[in-house]
Design brief:
The structure holds 2 protein chains of 2 kinds.
Chain A: H1 2-32, H2 39-55, H3 63-80, H4 91-113, E1 129-132, E2 135-138, H5 139-161, H6 163-173, H7 175-180, H8 185-211, H9 217-232, H10 237-257, H11 262-276
Antiparallel strand pairs in A: 1-2
Helix pairs in contact in A: 1-5, 1-8, 1-9, 1-10, 2-3, 2-4, 2-8, 2-9, 3-8, 5-6, 6-8, 9-10, 10-11
Chain B: H1 2-5, H2 12-26, E1 39-45, H3 52-68, E2 72-73, E3 76-84, H4 89-101, E4 107-110, H5 114-127, E5 131-133, E6 149-150, H6 156-171, E7 176-181, H7 184-199, E8 204-210, H8 218-227, E9 231-235, H9 238-250, E10 259-262, E11 283-286, H10 296-304, H11 312-330, H12 338-347, E12 350-352, E13 355-357, E14 359-360, E15 365-366, E16 368-377, E17 383-394
Classes of the chains: A mainly alpha, B alpha/beta.
């Protein structure tokens, strides 16, 4: 029983990481209908920045905002060129563009940060452990769960309950009408993309303690994030939360029950889920360009 | 960074330039070239994909040896051409065909991925090119051995079986749990460990496997914590190793359960710098150690360029160069009579950074001293693989075994 409880905590902490990485991707996808395959690069940039930041002896807690700022800045640059010109294009064009961008970013990061595997030293407060019924569970993972819950909740609140969120959703639904209100929708969309990139960087900084940072991680994270977003239901916020929990629990418990077939079992479960509910767990009202 | 402090890492452009020049030369009538033609050594390694850092180390190790030799061996200038296999067998084969056919290399070397090594085996055997192969899959010393291949490195069996001996003799006689990456190398390391340990009378408990590229080892570590084994034998490589070890510490298993593994799991260059003190006290069996006496000269030269302590692949790249150099010197700078060159190489051991290296003429594989390294705190608090015991002259069972 105690074993199962700790495994549930394990699953929750992994789900939190998936949620953090999935959020940025789902924000641009659901709000802007823009497929950004360079999202994994923002994540990796955040990880690298956190590693360098902590390695340089700067205050470790500020590594997380530093990851956010660095990735957001990269996002702001890329938004100006070339992303902006592709918002209205078909998904296939966006996929080609952003995949290309992700390859360029991967090479730039390998050049700038090296090819070695690097990982940050965690702040003292996060490197402890709590004993759950005699089994150890790291404090860092509790922190991840909390960070996932807080960021997820905060983002939901901003986008769903504030006028800023309403503005963004309106700009996506009908740009023309919002423009007639005297609002520059280009800036609104730019802000969303920057926020998404920043979230990618922040999750990279948070996740670096678990996944480390190295060339190739960008693709691994991107795939996990895509699975999360697709399984949960494209284009809905609650869907991403549901997807993160589903993928996190599936991957964790498949490792517990069938460790040798962990990936096969987990992804078979995902495939079955998509067959049963092609729209994802939380199927959105379809809005396809 | 490693690369920046190293050597004219042949950029792709430079290699391409070399290639076009090379093919131009190759069209000239042969006699005109016989004398002054430089020796051409081709290397196939991974400069992209999952083994990028390892491939860069291998190339840097080889470059160090070539620089120490003044870029000339046995009186002939050496041209060193490097090709990237991206850790993909079909790409490795394509690059090998290019080095053999277009560049007309005198010898080939390299390879990180055993998949690429096994794929190259037929290519170089068919093309009859002397090849110094650094893959370590057991089959390379057994069914896939080839008269055209010399392997100046270990097989997985050498590390797995010595770890079984060490664990039985010094750590625990029962309740071993194994955990491994579920791919060829993981299966070999863990399988050979279990076989050697059982042969001595030990019993193996649970055996856990995870897919290559596992992001989260939490579930596995919780399972290990609840099993409370006497000792864990594990193998993970690269980023998996870093994650496993860091999480091993996060889950408070470090220091409570002895951890044993093959050397690559605790690689000095690739893994330990990223894991803090998580691996402190862990033990590994390895043909490489920065503290091995035979490696002292190499370690000094390697660090003189401002680099951190060398790991497996920088040392292996260097040793590969030493063995190629010995082969060329014994053959008077010409490998075209490979039969004789090979015999001369196998006649007497070569002094290398892995120690005195005799070869097993049955399979062209090195007979190696296998060190038992304990991860200890070295100068400046860095983790260092420190030799605590050496199993001398370990030889793979070979084709008959």
């Amino acid at each position: 029983m105690d074993l199962a409880l700790v495994q549930v905590l394990n699953a929750l902490s992994f789900s939190a990481l998936l949620l953090l990485t999935g959020l940025g991707l789902s924000v641009v996808l659901s709000l802007m209908n823009f497929v950004n395959l360079a999202h994994g690069s923002f994540y990796l940039l955040g990880s690298h920045v956190a590693v360098v930041w902590i390695g340089a002896g700067l205050p470790p807690w500020l590594a997380f905002p530093a990851g956010f700022v660095a990735a957001a800045a990269a996002g702001a640059l890329l938004e100006r060129f070339p992303f902006r010109g592709f918002y209205g294009r078909p998904h296939l064009m966006q996929v080609l563009l952003t995949y290309g961008v992700s390859l360029i970013l991967a090479d730039l990061m390998r050049w700038g940060f090296g090819a070695a595997i690097r990982a940050p030293g965690l702040p003292e407060a996060l490197s402890g452990v709590v004993f759950v019924l005699d089994l150890p569970f790291p404090v860092y993972r509790l922190f991840l769960i909390a960070a996932g819950a807080v960021l997820g909740g905060g983002l939901w609140f901003v986008l769903d309950r504030t006028v800023w969120g309403a503005l963004v959703r309106a700009a996506v639904a009908d740009r023309g009408v919002v423009e007639t209100l005297g609002i520059d929708t280009r800036r609104v969309l730019a802000a969303v993309l920057v926020l998404s990139a920043g979230l990618g960087g922040l999750s990279g900084a948070l996740g670096a303690g678990m996944l480390a940072a190295y060339p190739g991680l960008d693709e691994e994270v991107l795939i996990l994030a895509l699975v999360t977003v697709v399984a949960g239901g494209l284009g809905t916020f609650r869907g991403t939360v549901a997807g993160a929990l589903a993928v996190g629990f599936a991957l964790t418990f498949s490792k517990v029950w069938f460790p040798e077939f962990a990936n096969a079992a987990a992804f078979a479960a995902m495939a079955a889920l998509l067959l049963l509910r092609p729209g994802g767990i939380v199927a959105p009202p379809l809005r396809q360009v | 960074m490693r690369q920046a402090s190293g050597h004219p890492a042949p950029s792709r452009r430079r290699v391409l330039a070399g290639l076009s020049a090379g093919t131009g030369v190759a069209l000239l009538p042969a006699p005109a070239l016989a004398q002054g033609r430089p020796l051409r050594i081709g290397m196939i390694t991974s400069l992209s994909g999952p083994f990028t850092a390892l491939g860069e180390s291998m190339r840097a190790g080889m470059n160090l040896l070539l620089d120490q030799s003044g870029r000339a061996i046995a009186g002939r200038a050496v041209e060193f051409l490097v090709e990237d296999d991206g850790a993909r067998p079909e790409e490795g084969v394509r690059r090998a065909r290019k080095l053999i056919g277009a560049d007309r290399v005198d010898a080939l070397c390299g390879v990180i991925s055993s998949g690429v090594a096994l794929a190259l085996r037929d290519v170089v055997t068919e093309a009859r090119v002397p090849t110094f192969l650094l893959g370590s899959a057991n089959d390379l010393a057994r069914g896939a051995a080839s008269p055209w291949i010399v392997r100046p490195t270990k097989t997985n069996w050498m590390l797995g079986s010595t770890a079984g001996r060490w664990t039985w003799e010094r750590v625990s006689k029962a309740r071993v749990l194994t955990a491994g990456s579920d791919y060829a190398a993981g299966r070999e390391y863990v399988g050979d460990f279990a076989e050697a340990y059982r042969a001595l009378g030990g019993t193996i408990g649970r055996q856990l496997w995870t897919p290559l590229g596992t992001a989260d080892f939490g579930p596995l570590l919780t399972a290990i914590a609840s099993e409370r084994p006497e000792v864990v034998y594990a193998f993970f490589a690269g980023s998996d190793a870093v994650r496993f070890l860091r999480q091993w510490k996060e889950y408070r298993l470090a220091g409570r359960i002895p951890l044993v593994g093959p050397g690559a799991f605790f690689d000095q260059e690739d893994v330990l710098p990223a894991t803090g003190d998580a691996a402190l006290g862990a033990v590994n069996t390895f043909n490489q150690s920065p503290t091995a006496p035979a490696a002292a000269g190499f370690v000094r030269a390697w660090r003189a360029a401002g680099r951190p302590l060398p790991g497996e692949f920088s040392t292996t790249g260097y040793v590969c160069g030493q063995v190629i150099k010995a082969a060329l010197e014994r053959a008077g700078g010409d490998l075209s009579d490979w039969e004789a060159a090979r015999r001369a190489l196998f006649d007497a051991p070569v002094e290398t950074a892995f120690g005195r290296m005799p070869f097993d003429p049955r399979n062209g594989g090195a007979v190696l001293d296998i060190h038992v390294n304990e991860v200890r705190r070295g100068e400046g608090g860095a983790m260092v693989n420190t030799v605590v015991h050496t199993y001398e002259a370990v030889r793979d069972p070979g084709p008959a075994g």
